[in-house]
Amino acid sequence: MSITVIKQKIDVCAIFKKNFVSIKWFEWKGQQIEVNKITHKWYTKDGQNKILHLAVTGENGYYEISYNINTFEWILEKTEVE
């Protein structure tokens, strides 16, 4: 498997509770991909924007998803699928 850079906006079903976020699924290429587990999270800055990055496992691979806290946009950054 190899890592592929995607950088596409996606729709995400997420639950925000206090200081915690849980992702249920996201849509990519017309498919709804169920998220099994968030394996890692970290923050970066892009100018004035604070970005939350999440490494997740899904139905058939690993994904890096980012959430721009200022613009409320979700991006599929990278994937490694079987």
How are the SSEs placed, and which strands pair?
Elements: E1 4-9, E2 11-17, E3 20-28, E4 31-46, E5 49-58, E6 61-68, E7 73-81
Antiparallel strand pairs: 1-7, 2-3, 3-4, 4-5, 5-6, 6-7
Question: What does the largest sheet look like?
Answer: 7 strands, antiparallel
- Average pLDDT taken over every residue: 94
Low confidence ranges: none
What's the tally of helices? 0
Give me the side-by-side strand order of the main sheet: 1-7-6-5-4-3-2
Give me the oligomer status: single chain
Please give a structural write-up:
- By secondary structure, the protein is mostly beta strands.
- It has one domain.
- It has no helices and 7 strands.
- It has strands at 4-9, 11-17, 20-28, 31-46, 49-58, 61-68, 73-81.
- Strands 1-7-6-5-4-3-2 form a 7-stranded antiparallel sheet, with no helix packed on it.
- β2 and β3 (20-28) form a beta hairpin.
- It is globular, with a radius of gyration of 12 Å.
- The model has no long low-confidence stretch (mean pLDDT 94).
Task: Give a quick set of tags describing it.
mainly beta; 7-stranded antiparallel beta sheet; 7 strands
Quick summary of this structure?
With 82 residues, this protein is an all-beta fold.
